[in-house]
């Protein structure tokens, strides 16, 4: 019996999308208490790299929220990175719940983050669940892939 196909990542389409402008003093989309400027923008702009797998996950969620496909590709492991990544312009990411983590700290070379990302598409609410694997590549955390559903 073959396994059912995994649902593609919500938010991908052939329509190009430019990064959205988010006021630096706005709350960070990732849900941490800092402003966007002091949180995920530091990673998106290349001023710092995520110190943990969870922070990378949060910054990648924020990249979806602001439409930063370049950051998403830059933080995707080269063996699993898609050739192109175009984001759905009508999709609005509305919240992130971190459900659990394993390893993924400064003392590890791999880790996982289980999360649920909430969105609205054409006025219809939805969510994306994933248990993601992250590894260090060249000393920096990168997204590797999604673990299969148990």
Automatic annotation (TrEMBL):
Coiled-coil parts of chain: none
SUPFAM superfamilies: NTF2-like
Region: Disordered, residue numbers: 1-26
Name the record gives this protein: UPF0225 protein SL103_21450
HAMAP family found in the cross-reference section: UPF0225
UniProt-listed InterPro entries: NTF2-like_dom_sf, SEC_C_motif, YchJ-like, YchJ-like_M
Family: Belongs to the UPF0225 family.
Highest taxon of source: Bacteria
Organism phylogeny: Bacteria, Bacillati, Actinomycetota, Actinomycetes, Kitasatosporales
Domain YchJ-like middle NTF2-like: 52-146
PANTHER family: ADENYLATE CYCLASE-ASSOCIATED CAP C-TERMINAL DOMAIN-CONTAINING PROTEIN, UPF0225 PROTEIN SCO1677
